[in-house]
Fold this sequence. Notes:
Bound molecules: zinc ion
Radius of gyration: 20 Å
Number of strands: 18
Largest sheet: 12 strands, mixed
Strand content: 35-45%
Shape: globular
Number of helices: 6
CATH class of the largest domain: Alpha Beta
Structural class: alpha+beta
Low-confidence stretches: none
CATH topology of the largest domain: Aminopeptidase
Mean pLDDT: 97
Amino acid sequence: MNKTVTIGNVTARPGEIQRGVLEVGNDMAGRPQAIPLLVVNGSEAGPCLWINGATHGDEPEGAFSIFLALKQLDPQQLAGTVVAVPAMNVNAFTAGTRGDPLDTFSYDMNRIYPGKADGYPTERIAYAHWQAMQASCDLQIAVHSGGEHSYLAHMIFASDNPASLELAAAMGPQWPLVFRSPVGGGNPSSMMGSLGKAGITVELGGNCRSLTRDFHVVAEDLAASYLNVLRHYKMIAGQPSYAPAWQQGYQIALLAPATGLFVGNPELPFERPIAQGTLLGTLYDLYGDVLAELVAPREGVVFGLRSRPSVLAGQWCCFFGVVEQTVTDLLPARS
Ligand SMILES: [Zn+2]
C-alpha cells in the first residue's frame, strides 16, 4: 500500500490524482504567485517520478506531453507517484520567452539551481521548486526543446551517474543519443545527479513544430516515452522497450559565422551520422548573396538546427553532436 503524499498545497491519498500549486511569494496585486502541479499518487508503493516542463517559457512540449500522458494514467493501476509540473517558470511561459522578462538578473532558470530563498526573482522560484522536489523525487525528467529559435531532435543529456543513465535508457527506442552532462550544472537534472538520484534533460521539438498535428506528434512521442519509463520501473504494467545501443559523446555549438538569413540544407538528416564538410545551412545577406556556408566541422550527428532564419553572427545555428562511443550497458544487468 502506498502512503499519502503532500507537495505544495496538494495532498493526494493512495489511488488519487490531485492538483494544486507551489506558492512563491506574491505578485504586484498581492495575489500568491504559484507553480501549478498535478500529483498522481498510485495505490501501490513505488518510486516518485517528477516530470518538469517549461523551465524555459518558450518550450511548451513538456506541458502538452504531460497532459497526454496523464490521460493514460490510472492512479489505481500505478505503483509510486508521478508529480507533473507543466510549466515551472510561469512568468516566462506567459510571456512565451526563455526567461521571465521581468527578471533580468536570473533570466535562465536552467542555470541557477538550487536557487536561493532570498535571491533574484527566478532564483526564488527555482528554490521553491527544488525544495519540494528534493524532498520527494527519485527520478526526474526535465523536458526541453529548441523553443522560439530552433528545432531539436531526440537528445538526452543525462547526469553522469548510473541512476541517470538508466533513466535515459528507460525513455525508449527513439532515444539512442544519450550524452553525459557533468554534475554541478545548476539545473534540476544535475542537482538530482549530485544526490546520486536520476535526472535527465530531454530535448524534442521547438516552436516550428507546435502547429496542429505536428505538435501532437512531438507531444505523443514524449508521452509514450514517459509511459515507457513507468513500465521500466514497474510503476505500471507492460513491457518496456529500449534502444539496442546508445551513442555517447559531447555537443559542439555551431554559431552563425555572419549576420544574415540562415537557411538550413533541405536534405540534412537529423540524428544520423554525417561526414565532415556536409552542408548544414547557408547564410545570405539581404541582397541574396551568399555570406557564408555552415558545414559539419567533423564527422558527427546533427540533433538540432536553427528554425528562425534571421540570425546575428555568434548566435546558435546548429546543435552538433560528436559521438565518442556506442555503449550497450546503461541498463543494470538483469538477474
Ligand atoms: Zn530549454
